[in-house]
Amino acid sequence: MATVDDIERVRRALIGAAQPTSDFDLNPDVKLPANRKLRPAAVLVALLPGTDGAQVVLTKRASSLKHHPGQIAFAGGKVDPIDAGPVAAALREANEEIGLPADNVDVLGMLPSHETVTGFTVTPVVALIKVRFNAKPEPGEVAEVFSVPLSHVADLGNFQIQSRRWQGMPRYYHTVPYGPYYIWGATARILHAFAGRLAP
Question: Of all residues in the chain, what percent are helix, strand and coil, respectively (each to 5)?
């Protein structure tokens, strides 16, 4: 699939409203407090052009981190007071974490917000990287920057549902493995929602 086809497909997929997603989507027995306070965050779903199709840029978090060590994630983080909203936060975090300049990005749109088990409401910002860049993983935060074909994560057949024990109960979640990378949790759920919108 040519990159131009990929990007037009993505643009069309981002049109219109959609339901927010959650780490609890596969666990309907979990009762969330109605008055819970969620902290705003944003991630950049960055698409890298390629002759064989677009690639989705992901990171592997450093193993020394206190939260989610070694997990696969989008570049991103909490929305700070200095940020003019989630788009600004996603671009700032991508610059800090992987060295992606904000002026090398064309924002295409946003996916529905995603609530995490850690109390964040995450806005996924979908963007096209204009030209290839020299990724610079942030020391101590990012162990690796890599990419996965959009065609892989756009195929709902590549997703699985797995589970592990959480607070004494089985917790179910989406995964979308790719090569040596075990993509799961919020990252996989956001990609699953993206794939659902990309589906014909």
Answer: 25, 35, 40
